[in-house]
Amino acid sequence: FPGMNAAVRAVTRMGIYVGAKVFLIYEGYEGITGGGGTVIGSARCKAFTTRAGRLRAARNLVEHGITNLCVIGGDGSLTGADIFRSEWGELLEELVQDGQISEEVAQENSRLNIVGLVGSIDNDFCGTDMTIGTDSALHRIMEVIDAITTTAQSHQRTFVLEVMGRHCGYLALVSGLASGADWLFIPESPPEDGWEDLMCERLGETRSRGSRLNIIIIAEGAIDRSGKPISSNYVKDLVVQRLGFDTRVTVLGHVQRGGTPSAFDRVLSSKMGMEAVMALLEATPDTPACVVSLSGNQSVRLPLMECVQVTKDVQKAMDEKRFEEAIQLRGRSFENNWNIYKLLAHQKPAQEKVRRSPFSLAILNVGAPAAGMNAAVRSAVRISICQGHTIYAVSDGFEGLAKGQIREVGWHDVAGWLGRGGSMLGTKRTLPKTCMEKIVENVRKFNIQGLLVIGGFEAYEGVLQLVEARGQYEELCIIMCVIPATISNNVPGTDFSLGSDTAVNAAMESCDRIKQSASGTKRRVFIVETMGGYCGYLSTVTGIAVGADAAYVYEDPFTIHDLKANVEHLTDKMKTDIQRGLVLRNEKCHEHYTTEFLYNLYSSEGKGIFDCRINVLGHLQQGGAPTPFDRNYGTKLGVKAVLWMSEKLEEVYCKGRVFANSDDSACVIGLRKKVVAFSPVTELKKVTDFEHRLPQEQWWLNLRLMLKMLANYQISLTEYISGKMEHVTRRTLSIEKGF
């Protein structure tokens, strides 16, 4: 699966970094039991499932003095590792009795520590938020869906898309949510009896409304209520026979396992690899075998067997047709995805005459375009309609609000917006203070009681200006919410801005190509300039994803001494068999040490050893179709923001009007650690550096330790925060995890 190599690299480098001796075992368990193999492959191994095989494996490990094992694989591999660990003492005794090892050797190697990194593309391991490889698989699926969508512009077609997932519907569910599919089959929630009629009716309806394309997504393990498989061909034949639509089946198969890993998977596996080494170093005789995982953006350790147990419970619940329970055991975010999909996929007939709420909301985009903005607008519009609100779309940001570029939108006006990059509404950087009177006039004219602003730092600053003008204009005493959407990830109140994942992937793909351009030429160092204003998030995370030698950012001040050390480090490296170096520089990291300056410095110092080239990535970081993460994230933020606004509107609605002037009536919605939080803009103002357009505290700065360690710099690990051991039970799975 994609990301495995990044994990191997991180474990190896971190192991060497802490002074351990690191061995790579080739061809999985086959390699330990003494089978063949050349590169560090991966294999399912028959021998290891037998006691004799595990005995040979124990002898091979003891011969090399290996007592710490890091296993990267799915639940099968990890369960095998746990059995091996529980038998370790007996296996050594047996080896002593057979005279294969001495008593002393058995004493020296008396304890086997095991830590697992979960890799499986269908995210089927319970307790872990995301397994390595899942995000990359979603990238492959979305590429195919985007390609199919463009063919529908010329042909009217129905596509039945079969994705992997024998027992777990995660890939089908998230790709259905991220593509706005018309119908979805997942093993955990089989369709009600009589689904055939309902599905055909719905497809007919969307076609008669002018849609040229129907997408049906089906997990390979899809079943009906009685447990009978539903095949993609059965669905296709149904559509052809009943509706006569031109229908095609596309089975994605192993395409989903291939390709280069996404940025998320590269960073995830690097983080987990580093944490795995720490977990092995800190293991005691009482620590259970654990898997390292990510919870929000924090590393955690989970007891391996607790995860395996819950994973088995899901399968059992499905076998016994307890489907509601199966969905709950998959964890809260799986359940959320499923509920949101059902809410947004199709307008319920009853909702066309739903109780009209007395409220009117307006949505606008502010600042530079960011991928995922359209997904957020789409879900916000649709959920508002479900709630019975009147919903207005505003073109061109605050300027459009001032000029009256405001129109009411319906359910179908936002169809097809999910996968579009940029901003379909149109966006501008204008701040409200330049046109306050006119904004107030239109808020009054259209009777707007809620304002949802999707955008970057200007969106936050703009809402702050509106709140501060409430004393002057009573019309601004309404509910306001900001969804942070910017490639720079510099809005306070959230760990991740919408659009930053797409930008990191775009920058990473460019750097991959830039590095490749030098293969076969003489030694070369590339100086690559990224966007981000003063915020170094984009260059730091891209740096980790592409294995950069350095990433210069404003938040981590550097002097000429640091530059000198970096140049010497690269020069030493280039004297070995390494042919390429990559240095990232955030556009505003230093007033005087410009990209040109770095180029001149590296060129003259590297003379005779390597030559240099500059690349400024520029606007390609803002463009492109949104990644699966941003489509999903935008969709969820849109829903959560509107639900929060509806709740607040009800609270402040009195005698037929809305009057809101408390701090918590104007908030930024964001993901903080692992929960969705609403932070009042007036509170956030206290922790914002307005001159540099940055939050004063930024969580991702601790990722820079990993960047430097992986680039082989001697740094102190005293600041490294180890993951805590957390338990996995039915109760913990039901906790709201954000995303």
TrEMBL record:
Which reaction(s) are listed as its catalytic activity?
beta-D-fructose 6-phosphate + ATP = beta-D-fructose 1,6-bisphosphate + ADP + H(+)
Lineage, top-rank taxon, reads Eukaryota
User: What pathway annotation does it carry?
Assistant: Carbohydrate degradation; glycolysis; D-glyceraldehyde 3-phosphate and glycerone phosphate from D-glucose: step 3/4
Entry annotated with the keyword Magnesium: yes
Pfam families hit by this protein:
PFK
The record's Gene Ontology cellular component field reads:
6-phosphofructokinase complex; membrane
So which residues are the signal peptide here? none
Q: Which cofactor does it need?
A: Mg(2+)
E.C. numbers: 2.7.1.11
- Is Cell inner membrane given among the entry's keywords? no
**What GO molecular function annotations does the UniProt record carry, in alphabetical order?**
6-phosphofructokinase activity; AMP binding; ATP binding; fructose-6-phosphate binding; identical protein binding; metal ion binding; monosaccharide binding
Q: Where along the sequence do coiled-coil regions lie?
A: none
| UniProt family annotation | Belongs to the phosphofructokinase type A (PFKA) family. ATP-dependent PFK group I subfamily. Eukaryotic two domain clade "E" sub-subfamily.
Instruction: Provide the function of this protein.
Output: Catalyzes the phosphorylation of D-fructose 6-phosphate to fructose 1,6-bisphosphate by ATP, the first committing step of glycolysis. Negatively regulates the phagocyte oxidative burst in response to bacterial infection by controlling cellular NADPH biosynthesis and NADPH oxidase-derived reactive oxygen species. Upon macrophage activation, drives the metabolic switch toward glycolysis, thus preventing glucose turnover that produces NADPH via pentose phosphate pathway.
Tell me the protein's name.
6-phosphofructokinase
- Organism ancestry: Eukaryota, Metazoa, Chordata, Craniata, Vertebrata
